[in-house]
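The methods section describes the discrete structure representation at length, but only in general terms. Since the whole study asks how a given chain folds, the encoding of that fold should be made plain. An entry of this sort, consisting of the sequence and the corresponding backbone structure tokens, reads as follows:

. . .
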Amino acid sequence: MKMKHTLLAAAALSLLSTTASAVDWGGYFRVGPGQKQTTGDGAKCFGGNMEGGTYRLGNECNTYGEFMLSQGGQAGGVDYKAYLMTNMFKEGSDIGDTKVGVNQIYAEGKGFDIAPNQTFWIGKRFYGRADVHIVDTFFVNMSGTGAGVDGIDLGLGSLNVAVFRDGDDSTNPGTRLNLDLNGIKTNPGGTLRVTSVFSDFSGTGGKGGFGLSLQHNQSGVFGGENTAWLQYAQGSAYLNMAFGGGTDDSDQKRWRFVDSMQWTKGPLTGQAILVFGKQGTSNNKETFNTIGGRAAYAFTKNFKLQGELGISSHKPQGGQTDRLTKFTIAPTLSVGPNFYDRPEFRFYVSSFSFNDAYKATRGLTKSSATAVGFQVETWF
């Protein structure tokens, strides 16, 4: 009997071992103690009144993590894979009462006999995202619950097509179509991506919309890489090629230009960004802009000193320009000297200054603030 139990236990362990080896696990998180109040004159994190105007180093008053499980297989000549990603979010340093959610759950397959070279997918997922890391902003972000086919060869590039649906339980549900053409060669070291969105909200007060994004990637620029976006959207479509406001009509127009440089190989690395644009209706427009960057110098393989400076401005029609200036210095321990080497273990000191117009938008009486803290950031 003892031998039988031993054999059963060994078989169970073998099965678990086999199952575990077939499951991929990865993720991201940031966490650490620090001054992380977010409201009033005691606030320790600040962002510009615009998308892409929040410089994140030493300026994240929250704990966040996302963790992905995936498992693939093959059947009937089809390679398939299923994904599940959970996430957690909590303001401040403490992770008690953390909000936990599911931000991806979908499956994909490739090798179907009617279209063997294309990938088909259905579910809730991150889709077609393109970001600038130092401001934690995805300037293209078509994520949502949908269905699509990727990898349609058009000769000049590869086309992805997807349809998304949102708000079925509301009185104004939305549907959007995304077309995403990638890999158009424009010049030596340069490629163009053309992304469009067509949106329609079919309920009470629902409107349609359209958007177009041109993204150019260029290698070999001053020893680094450059990415530039020129984007336009109107109505119920937004600049990131996702949904905008469901009742926004064609008078609601938005445009922006984004340019980002990055140098990712040590010892001297960094990333910079410039954004300017305008949005609103014919009688209620606002302009916005930001410029900033992060630089890091690795004195050794595992120690670097980072600094980040950002200036963000926003002006409503008929109003005053609000302005935020942020500077952070962060001695950092890392597993390597490169920009994206993680994990990073940081001690940071951040300084913020703002003008009277910015103070009015946030209900502040002070013109400056300082924050001190520790943070670990990693992905795996």
